[in-house]
Design brief:
heterodimer, A: mainly beta, four-stranded antiparallel beta sheet, 50% strand, B: mainly beta, seven-stranded mixed beta sheet
């Protein structure tokens, strides 16, 4: 079945540091890929998405590129802020309605 | 613009009690789902629905019931609560722009349930 593997956290960074959160997947066919973010005490929000190979999703300074050859969708940001502290979830969908999520990676950014 | 609304936000139950978590969405989404979030486990799908009158099981359906009588509402029922059901529950509705899935899953703010 489908599965998503994310690097374990927490990831601890200083403000303005470079961020990478690794995500790899296993799926049948050609899934769509997503990054969701969960701020403390809130539900998940879509951060960015990519629907086909080599697509780059981007939002709020975050980027991720759909790499079919390595089955990866790593999340990157050039300069993190304290306000980026949250839990980040990688997810995929190879069907019509349900998403498969990774276990989430907590990011902690200190001033 | 309410989006996905879950009630209650917090609930404490005793083992064996029953309760219903409510979920309503005002976006006319056909697809709705329930997830539970546990530390170190990420989100796990409990049940989902692709439209009124149609429901299906997800990864962890045991101990939970759902029904979908209207497009807007998708309640989750715990028939006999157990401590293992202590979790944060999220309802989510789905917008799609065709097959394959290219849509966004909209989440409620969550319901924190404690079973003693």
């Amino acid at each position: 079945g489908d599965s998503v593997t994310q690097m374990e956290g927490p990831v601890t960074l200083s403000e303005e540091a470079f961020l990478t959160i690794n995500c790899t997947y296993t799926a049948t066919g050609y899934p769509s890929l997503f990054w969701y973010v969960q701020y403390p005490g809130e539900g998940l929000q879509l951060l960015l998405k990519a629907t086909k190979a080599d697509d780059k999703g981007s939002n709020k300074g975050f980027e991720a590129t759909y790499r079919k050859e390595t089955t990866s969708f790593h999340l990157e940001k050039g300069s993190v802020q304290v306000s980026d502290s949250a839990v980040y979830f990688c997810a995929l969908s190879s069907g019509y309605s349900t998403l498969t999520f990774g276990k989430g990676t907590m990011l902690l950014v200190s001033p | 613009n309410a989006g996905v609304t879950q009630t209650p936000k917090f609930q404490v139950l005793k083992t064996g009690q029953s309760m219903t978590l409510q979920c309503a969405q005002d976006m006319n989404h056909e697809y709705m789902s329930w997830y539970r979030q546990d530390p170190g486990m990420g989100l796990r799908l409990i049940h989902y629905s692709v439209g009124a009158g149609i429901t299906d099981q997800g990864e962890v359906p045991n101990g939970y019931n759902v029904s979908r009588s209207t497009t807007e509402d998708f309640p989750l029922r715990l028939l006999s609560a157990a401590p293992s059901q202590t979790s944060v529950y999220f309802c989510a509705s789905f917008r799609t722009s065709g097959f394959p899935n290219t849509g966004e899953l909209f989440f409620g703010e969550g319901s924190r349930l404690t079973v003693l």
